[in-house]
Amino acid sequence: MISVEEAQRLVVEQASSLPPRAVPLEESLGLILAEAVASDVDSPPHDKAMVDGYAIRTADLANGAARLAIIEEVMAGDVPLRMLGRGEATRIMTGSPIPTGCDAVVMFERTDVVDVAGDALGTVVIRDAPMRPGANILKQGCSMRRGDVALEAGCEIRPIEIGLLAEMGRSTVETMPRPRVAILSTGNELVPPEQVPARGQIRNSNGPLLAAAVARAGGIAEPLGICRDESPALRGVISAGLRSNILVLSGGVSAGVLDLVPAVLSELGVRCVFHKVRLKPGKPLWFGVYCAGAANCLVFGLPGNPVSSLVCFELFVRPVMARLAGRMDIFPPRKQALLSRAFTHRGDRPTYHPAHLADDEGGVHVDPLKWHGSADLRALAAANALIHFASGDRQWMPGESLDVLPL
Amino acid sequence: MISVEEAQRLVVEQASSLPPRAVPLEESLGLILAEAVASDVDSPPHDKAMVDGYAIRTADLANGAARLAIIEEVMAGDVPLRMLGRGEATRIMTGSPIPTGCDAVVMFERTDVVDVAGDALGTVVIRDAPMRPGANILKQGCSMRRGDVALEAGCEIRPIEIGLLAEMGRSTVETMPRPRVAILSTGNELVPPEQVPARGQIRNSNGPLLAAAVARAGGIAEPLGICRDESPALRGVISAGLRSNILVLSGGVSAGVLDLVPAVLSELGVRCVFHKVRLKPGKPLWFGVYCAGAANCLVFGLPGNPVSSLVCFELFVRPVMARLAGRMDIFPPRKQALLSRAFTHRGDRPTYHPAHLADDEGGVHVDPLKWHGSADLRALAAANALIHFASGDRQWMPGESLDVLPL
């Protein structure tokens, strides 16, 4: 049986980025940018006032004081029409272009206006405003010059990048698309959530869980519902799922007599890359690839129990989704945490045990939760992490450092 | 001028949770659960096999070995019809109910089947399987009993909770709705991203930036576009925006002559709670409340520069959105980080300075980025945090610990 690390390597080897696609700017949040974007403007587009006040010539100040004739008023969106001469000032708003001749802006708070009569704009009296040339002026292009590549391909588009793309004139942008992930739950024992299970039946919790996990990981979930363990039905619905970028099946991959899924996948031309991983929960994991021309579909057969499904999703499916979406850092960051209480781990497979992680005084602590195994989803409602225990029986002591995978 | 903390207190004081609403399970991801949910089933629903193998009676084992007649085969979704007698075994799949009389399950790997002839199921030979009663059996209800409240109101609905809700039979669920946030950019200088700005004009980067920030914070952005600084137009579009849970305006709240927004808001019956906060960037922040019967609208007038807008969004709008959505921890967690290089902060207001945070050997380090002030959005593309510098001039040394706000 292969290790988790080897299985991750084999999975990622089969995954390559999807072809880029242009999307409207407002739909690009969270995607990876697929082009380098250069600005078509200087930012700021002109030497501009950084405060509301008066554009002046510092040569007119004597000990930070002056009386200057107001020759013009420039509002936001307007441009100054008059050049500043000696003894003159222009009233100006934050962001406005400064007039020719001006070399500083004095903020309103240090000024008074007098001598306003008729149509005259009056005189501004400046007090206590010693200024160097350039004060309160932002130079054209100081943040970005026309032609500058301000965003490189490969960066994640956050709200900041959306603002910057808008500033650079982009209303559409080339991005890596969200992977489409088909989800199929298999098993004769499954009924939908709205149905009361008869004896021997259970509700399909895996389907909704995996669809939500796909959405949270930035993918488009394409739910295919429940399919019974019967070859003709499985063939039809699996064929449909192979049109997605990823097909996630749950159930039907352990050693049981009715586990028909691997056989049906093979019939349909899905090549098995591996089956079974040294992992608990999640040992029966099946992984294969379907090639149809240029379009590949990566196929995961996850075990039927919901906790196994979730662990396999986090370790294998989510990193592959990240790679398809053009991300570089595709494995979830691991943390180190200190065990909060003594805990004995037994078993011949590395185990991912539900746990609660808390950042308290004295560091990051992790508490292993009481857990009844791979079908016990309820224990996970209190979990925000999985502790990774190495294989082998061992008693762990409080304060020992362990690897954890935040959920 | 009030402090950031006082302003946050005043803002949160005006915010209360929105009325809960039933949504289909598949639309509940990321929302806060608004009801306690009890299970209508035991989990597991029956004593069940934890492995694929043979249901046996441990009394039949001698030194972990036995030859037992196979009396029945139980597939997933089936129920055993025959009770186990002495010397008998039932072939059974993981998850299946165990037959009456059985007290352990031996996994396939420790068995061989012999004597199969005609319709006979044959005999199972068990080797090297010393077992205690209860081995490989999960007891009915051990993870959850019918009537147990497995999820409390107030918890966040993650993929795990969606799986658990499905298991408990919920296809719809009471949740706290996403807040609807109207976004309006004001200013005569603004043009949409697809337009090339004329002299004195700039593109509206704030609108797209804030819409994306709202979406990322789990809200529904309702973009109202650009409005010129003219009272009649502002009145119309602001009236429309007051029908949302939150109205975010950007621009029009500093001291400029054309800053008509506060006047129009007042005319429309929006009560000002505060105007201006001791903060850089973001000083001109305006906040008020509009009451129309039971429905309130919280109104934020953000400064027109994109970095100021973003900082005010993170400090004030996002926590209020979290409160409306029913969350308890509404302020973004602050981190401590070690300054990576000497840095001089000057200014009489607490400042949020764009920075890059990295978790490297020796701890979490933060690097203040070169930044040209509140209009310089480009500097933020490299930022993943804001450093909080206290007011006053001070030279900070490498290795000093500072408060940071991750972005």
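qc> DSSP finds six helices and 27 strands in chain A.
qc> done
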